């Protein structure tokens, strides 16, 4: 649980720090993402309850060191990928999907954006599931995977509509070449 709390703290602190470095104009207390959503807070509370109950009822479940280590590696990978995406995007990265294109918006396709169209979402997806693998929380592993997948499927579709509006054929070409990075999520369907 200590490694989990350290990982959680580092994730939220580094969200703020990287935003401060990359996009100080958008910096606020919300940049910590502590108040991300009611669902996010409910998920965290659920994981703590599951961990506590299983620790009391099935303590051997919480002592699977190799599984916890896999979870820690997922957390590290996910957080590093997310921060790499934020740093690569620079001032183009914002925690809120933008509805209006500014003069400084550019389509970022290099670095980790050459691997995945949505590397920050891929990072967060694996980070969130990794936190539950780290805690050896089987119920929350499934719950986090399903909830995160659904959230990012909807978020990617919403964001890609905006990106197509901003960048047109340039984004469509990028979309054809680079996968979203998340399993079974192709993004918004474009009918020509």
UniProtKB/TrEMBL annotation:
<keyword id="KW-0489">Methyltransferase</keyword>
<comment type="function">
    <text>Catalyzes the post-translational methylation of isoprenylated C-terminal cysteine residues.</text>
</comment>
<dbReference type="GO" id="GO:0032259">
    <property type="term" value="P:methylation"/>
</dbReference>
<keyword id="KW-0472">Membrane</keyword>
<dbReference type="Pfam" id="PF04140">
    <property type="entry name" value="ICMT"/>
</dbReference>
<dbReference type="InterPro" id="IPR025770">
    <property type="entry name" value="PPMT_MeTrfase"/>
</dbReference>
<protein>
    <recommendedName>
        <fullName>Protein-S-isoprenylcysteine O-methyltransferase</fullName>
        <ecNumber>2.1.1.100</ecNumber>
    </recommendedName>
</protein>
<keyword id="KW-1133">Transmembrane helix</keyword>
<keyword id="KW-0812">Transmembrane</keyword>
<keyword id="KW-0808">Transferase</keyword>
<comment type="similarity">
    <text>Belongs to the class VI-like SAM-binding methyltransferase superfamily. Isoprenylcysteine carboxyl methyltransferase family.</text>
</comment>
<dbReference type="GO" id="GO:0004671">
    <property type="term" value="F:protein C-terminal S-isoprenylcysteine carboxyl O-methyltransferase activity"/>
</dbReference>
<keyword id="KW-0949">S-adenosyl-L-methionine</keyword>
<dbReference type="InterPro" id="IPR007269">
    <property type="entry name" value="ICMT_MeTrfase"/>
</dbReference>
<feature type="transmembrane region" description="Helical">
    <location>
        <begin position="124"/>
        <end position="147"/>
    </location>
</feature>
<dbReference type="GO" id="GO:0005789">
    <property type="term" value="C:endoplasmic reticulum membrane"/>
</dbReference>
<keyword id="KW-0256">Endoplasmic reticulum</keyword>
